[in-house]
């Protein structure tokens, strides 16, 4: 096989990697904007997040089409094939992160203004900051072929779960204090849950990126994703 | 290419299709058992659902490994390649359905006994029945290469969304009536949301199956997945 063919394959793959990075950047921006629109009750910003999701979907389709065309045209083997299949899977997780950010944005008007007391806003914001850092770090870890960093990321997801459990308890307390808070808090609960789930998708991306980079799969037993189902007992 | 090679490729693909069917059967059984364990407060049954999820994960890995080996070994083109990539995606959605059923099962002890009034149990049960029917139908539609049936399934998901909205409102009312219901109802709310999300994954599977069967993608605009974020206003 000539030099030219090899270079073209790498170029095709490079294009797919750029789409992954674009989707990662968009995912991070959507998480940031959806959380800000929620905490500042900014319905115009929320509307932009909802529109951005169509862009995310289009990019995923473009990546899928390119990846499948690449497999058909180049018939890559072993490590190269793994990179292409890994990219398809990572794109699926990034698209889901976009969906979850959109879902947060769609709840902005239902939550309304001043629904969350200051301490609760801080807790949700802290959780969002952790999630955004993870989204940025997993794309950087993939681009830098940083296997150790990717393992670390998966473990870091535990901290998001801990923060989610704290937000969950805070929301329950706030609902019990005053039944008029229940509707808004229920929506905030789903928003917090969405952030926790975005963390899970980052974990999936880290696992796929690790597989692409090393050719090995991470062990099956990953951290539990939702501690509230076992740590919070019914009254 | 000889008769023998063609037959072997079909045999390999047939094996992958059987794994899809097995995962579909297991997914349906997990949804059924998780809902029953929730409504009958059967912690032993819930524990079995939690164990079954490891089996689901193992099957997905087996399917992924077989699919990637098949692509590398046979280098399928066009329609055949589409079938293999479609199977990888369907398996990912089935695995997520298993995760969601497990999450319902994990909430059984937190919800506790007699937490839901009879009318609410009926509503959740009705929703679960619809979801189980969809899981069964999408696997049958894929196996039968029934493109029209698969389109119909995607549209049927709207009915699950309508039922979810009814359950959501019922749960809010119940929480407002008595704050002591809040913790249990919050967990039930997540269970109902999980059922609604399982419906979304069935929709994804239907879309992928349609692509595999017809070579065409369904139009982008699919039904909204969660009406509660727009139809229920904050008080």
Automatic annotation (TrEMBL), chains A, B:
Keywords on record: Cytoplasm, Phosphate transport, Transport
Coiled coil: none
Keyword Transcription regulation in record: no
SUPFAM superfamilies: PhoU-like
A GO term from the CC aspect: cytoplasm
GO biological process, one term: negative regulation of phosphate metabolic process
Quaternary structure note: Homodimer.
Family the UniProt entry places it in: Belongs to the PhoU family.
Protein name per Swiss-Prot or TrEMBL: Phosphate-specific transport system accessory protein PhoU
């Amino acid at each position: 096989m000539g030099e030219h063919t090899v270079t073209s394959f790498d170029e095709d793959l490079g294009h797919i990697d750029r789409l992954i990075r674009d989707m990662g950047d968009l995912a991070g921006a959507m998480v940031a904007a959806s959380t800000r629109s929620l905490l500042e009750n900014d319905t115009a910003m929320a509307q932009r997040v909802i529109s951005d999701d169509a862009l995310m979907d289009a990019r995923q389709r473009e990546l899928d089409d390119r990846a499948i065309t690449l497999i058909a045209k180049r018939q890559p083997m072993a490590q190269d094939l793994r990179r292409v299949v890994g990219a398809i899977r990572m794109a699926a997780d990034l698209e889901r992160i976009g969906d979850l950010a959109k879902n947060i944005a769609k709840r902005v008007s239902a939550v309304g203004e001043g629904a969350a007391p200051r301490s609760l806003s801080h807790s949700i914001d802290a959780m969002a900051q952790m999630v955004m850092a993870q989204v940025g770090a997993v794309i950087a870890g993939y681009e830098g072929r940083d296997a150790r960093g990717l393992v670390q990321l998966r473990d870091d997801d535990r901290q998001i779960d801990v923060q989610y459990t704290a937000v969950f308890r805070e929301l329950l307390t706030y609902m019990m204090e005053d039944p008029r808070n229940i509707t808004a808090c229920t929506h905030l609960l789903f928003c917090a849950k969405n952030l926790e789930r975005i963390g899970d998708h980052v974990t999936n991306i880290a696992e796929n990126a690790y597989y692409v980079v090393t050719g090995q799969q991470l062990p099956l037993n990953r951290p539990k994703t939702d501690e509230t189902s076992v740590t919070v007992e019914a009254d």
